[in-house]
Amino acid sequence: MLKKTIAAVAGICLAGSAVFAAGSKKSGKNVTLNVMYKEVTGYTPWLEQAKAQFEAANPNVTVKLMCLPSTEADYNTKTALTLQTDNSVDVMVTDSFLVASLVGSDCLAPLTVSNWTDWKTQYPESIRASQTINGKVYAIPYTTDTRGLYYNAKTLAAAGIKMPWQPKSWADILDAVKKLHAAGVAYPIWMNGSKAQGEGTSMQTFEMLLSGTNDWLYENGKWVTKSKGFTDSLKFIQSLKDMGIYSNINLATMLDANGWQMLPEKFAKGSDVGILLDGVWKAADWINALGADKVQDVIKVVPMPNQNGTGFTSMSGGWTLAVSKLSSKKDVALAFIKLAVNKENMVFFTTKGGDMTVRTDVGSDPRYVQLNYYRSAMTPYIGWTRFRPAVDGYPSVSIEIQTAVESVISGQKTAEEAAAVYDTNVRKIVGKGNYIQK
Amino acid sequence: MVYADQAKKARLMILPAVFLILLFYAGPVLLAVLYSFTDKMLVGLKSKHWSFVGLENYIVMFSDKDFYLSLLNTVVFLVFSAIIGQQVLGFFLAQLCESANRSIAHLTSLIVLISWVTPEVVVSFIFFAFLNPNGSLNNFLQLLHLKPVAWLYDHAMLAVIFTNVWRGTAFSMLMFQAALKSVDTSVKEAALIDGASPGQILSRITLPIISGSIMTNTILITLQTLGLFGLIYALTGGGPGFKTTTLPIYMYDKAFAAYQIGYGTAMAIVMLGLGMILSVIYVKKLGKDF
Questions:
Q1: pTM (2 decimals)?
Q2: Interface predicted TM-score (ipTM)
Q3: Quick check: B240 and A104 CB within 8 A?
């Protein structure tokens, strides 16, 4: 009996000590600030620099950087889950389109920007408005972007396309694709097209097409679940599939979430890719591949034309730094963010990657202007750019877009079939009274 | 009196385990059932302010063409990789090990077991390295001057079936090794004397004797394979398009990628029901046959 009692007590003590040992993190004055971000070219050096500066200015703070090498789709899921449950993450790099939904689920802390001069003087009104929800600011954008058509001038010229190539309509693009295919180019046009590529498929591919039609995703407070523009955009993608321009292996590579890593070889240095529909941040890859003095002879960029020659279009997104509602050091988190996005750190950031800045002072800094020709060339696209609907529900609708695009480009559904599935699914997602069909 | 006292102590001792099971298992299952009747989302307003929508998720699911497609994929995957692939191969290996040299039998078991203990994601990576357009299989084919094939694109279902067979055969093999040991050799010898062929011994004696194990094994690997997620997700992501999207992957896509928790949990409940139905069918059918 005694032996049993001792054994029981010992067992309880062992279990108890394990529980208590696990929980003692907040000892003394030392504060650990956890910053979570997705691995993208340039992020780690930028955040390491901010970390060093912040720790030097705040000796009792240790900044821990958590880099997640994940696909875009997975990172957004991770963001949603982390901000709901993980109280160890303080600062989270968040895709700007997710911010409205995260605010809806009460996952982000409102940020005090009223005493921050930079916010009023260096951030354009449209940018400030895009992150202000119900009068409060929930995330600080540090990069925006535009999208256009890159092309390899040598590859296009060799296919008999007149230089400089300046498509004015979708027909012009398809015409160039035909010529490139006839010339034996492996990827006449390279674009995102799979669910795994996440927002890359929605924004760089589909919304670049849809925004060039007379219809949009969200009009007058309601989701447009059926429209000619939607079906036409899918038909454009279907015509690429029908032309048979991709072999199965090449299509698989193009649709792979990590396929973009092949582009410096295939597009910049090689002649496997003719046209690339993608964003401004890619330019850093071409500059790195070919060198700043030679790259402009090979890679050119032009704006994406509207469907029927009525002008040009682009899409802008961007990434933000946000503070988790579950964080116990919100003030420290905001202080870190303000430091990370100050002028010098933003200039540094834009030298390490190809991202476009939102800050006015950085945008006119000669270091920024001279470093990246493409970035300067694509900045005017902001004049005709569109933003994603910053409403609750966009993330789910975006998945339906990606599903539709993937089913068409892989030949599993026709444009009409995929559009019908989108219509049915989105009506379910957004609910009665929140959609219109045109 | 002694027994009542011991029974009381036993109940007290079991209490912590019951508590843990209720907390980490029954609790989430009940929550899942609850959420399946709501429109809860992972992000947005509806993640905190969701409402009950009755059977709407289920109604939507049963009129969703993609749901039936994923169900078909699941059945194909289950039948070919688990019920046929793993069981037949496992049984075959167990038979061979039984009649082979002891050390060879041990070595074979060990090698087959390595695939079982390897984590799912690592197995997927191995086969990705093997089957991707620039992987070892295509390099090998090119050595033989054959055209490379986009295995994970053109033959995605075949690829995941093959990977799962490779991965899970060990389990069936172990089950059948134990079962075969319980078959009395004297029965087999008597049959041999009576002039039975090896085929007849297998079908009329061995299989009926181990029918209980076959049924248990079938139920276990069915339930395991029904819920298999990581292996397929890491290898093909459910793609290309919908070609390898089984029910668990479709459920993940809806619940975590499209943020529709309500719809995703409804699918999970349907999967649970499917598992239960299949188990009942197995018990009834295999119980009768032998």
A1: 0.80
A2: 0.75
A3: no
